């Protein structure tokens, strides 16, 4: 599992959508397989973008650490299972 973690938070869904699209490209390129963010908007949009690919099983989790909440989205690539 190759993760990317960033602490960016966006004010609008449009900003989060542009960002999630770039992360989707990294996952499609298989440089990473998972992403962790404190921004619910990015995690939600990313999960929907990834679910469009029939070769992925999309997973997500909420992680509580101290008083922060982080959202994880990752894929299992079905063609390699």
UniProtKB/TrEMBL annotation:
Can you say what this protein is called?
A: Dehydrogenase
User: What is the organism of origin for this protein?
Assistant: Exiguobacterium indicum
